Amino acid sequence: MNHGATCATYSTLLFLHSDNKIDLDALLVIEDQVNKKNIIGSCFTQRIDNDKIIYRLIETQGNIRARLSKVFYGDQGIFVKKDIFFKIGCFPNVPIMEDVLFTKKLRTIGKTKMLQNKIHVSSRRWDNGGIVKTTLRYNLINIAFKLAVSLEKIKLLYEDSR
What we know:
This protein has 162 residues and is α+β, with helices and mostly antiparallel strands. It has helices at 2-7, 24-36, 53-69, 82-87, 98-106, 124-129, 131-146, 151-159; strands at 12-15, 20-22, 39-48, 78-81, 111-121. α7 (131-146) packs antiparallel against α8. The longest helix has 17 residues, at 53-69. The radius of gyration is 16 Å and the shape is globular. The model has no long low-confidence stretch (mean pLDDT 93).
């Protein structure tokens, strides 16, 4: 991601997971937020692409967490002004949680905001790993991170979900 940022030619960067989709009009909203609202970085509101009610609960939990904490995950589509990205040192070179570490730093130097525009997230991981098991695993990863468990050990938990 850091290498891609160095090659990018626009003044705003969007980091988007390969199994996520955003609507084209969301790109215009990014530019509007950066240029008119002085937002230095942000993410989108998650919508998991599955009609089961449990997915509404999972996405609601994640969206509330992101709105309140202003800590964004990669599958929420992180965007940031390019100059700010380099000013704060890019994504840290760590095995996991680089998005969390980056956005924690980002929120300390300027205005961030979760956009109402939807990012469509694949339900593949929950479908393949089991909804309850996968959700519990992601929550365990977050708890381990908050308890300062080494990122190498946390990465092992995450790899089990793939």
